Amino acid sequence: MTQGFRIDGCQYANWSEKIFRQMREGGLDAVHVTISYHENFRETVLNIEQWNRWFEQYSDLIFQGRFASDVKLARETNRTAIFFGFQNPSSIEDDIGLVEIVHTLGVRFMQLTYNNQSLLATGCYEPDDTGLTRMGKEVVKEMNRVGLVVDMSHSAERSTLEAIEHSDRPIVISHANPEFWFPALRNKSDKVLKALAESGGLLGCSLYPHHLKDKSNCTLQSFCEMIAKTAEMIGVDHIGIGSDLCQDQPDSIVEWMRVGRWTKSIDYGEGSASNPGFPDMPEWYKDNRDFPNLENGLRSVGFNQVEADKILGDNWLKFFDESFQPTP
Fold this sequence. Notes:
Layout: E1 7-11, H1 17-25, E2 30-36, H2 41-57, E3 62-64, H3 69-77, E4 80-86, H4 97-104, E5 107-111, H5 134-146, E6 149-151, H6 157-166, E7 172-173, H7 190-198, E8 202-205, H8 220-234, E9 239-241, H9 251-259, H10 291-300, H11 305-323
Parallel strand pairs: 1-2, 2-4, 3-4, 4-5, 5-6, 7-8, 8-9
Helix pairs in contact: 8-10, 10-11
């Protein structure tokens, strides 16, 4: 029996040959990588230039993915396809025309917010959620047209529900967990998860410790039991993995992620003043080599092999196939 595809729906590691080799050791056919947090368009282009150098230098390990067929090519050639995504719409600035440009450059996911209010929607840390803005509705329509996936991982509840309702194509929450399991600001309510599934969307369950019950001490059993309960609620076809792995990043990157250029103060966000840096990953998921542990955990809580394969990558592949092409 052929193993299902293995896809991680979100990472922001400190990229290196070591990590690319670990992707191969972990059997990952594709990874959605963050290439922009607070960067403007020109700065994002510089990040793409850096990725182009990595694609050239490590062509035996990675290549740029643009469509679902590239995941299959990755499996056939023993490499990992890298799909670009934004965690903030700052890269399109205030210009809707850049939506098509960034898709042409290979970007396949864009969050409408990163914790704060943006020009498009409200982030999960804002006290007042006003939903999609006028520009947000227009940008969602344009994203649908070109094949750029709407991601609401860091968005507030009303904004997320409005994005699901307003989008003609299914959206994703690429890296978050259910609120019923652990009530972090970034984790999602039952209402959001049910609306996501009913519209054909996909939840990428996150391994970032601030989103986990018991945080760094979360067990594989607890994490997989959470996935099982979520599957009972929304169906196994709407669940994937979005690890949010930030491997080898210095703590200064946490400050960049949370603060960007919008404040002079330190915003600890999901951390705390006593622990402002990156939290330790759970022992059973330190890096990409540990991805197979998830299969063992899913099987141990009652998923059969076909269901485990769906969660570990086949659901993402189906979503890629339906989402990355422009509408006819």
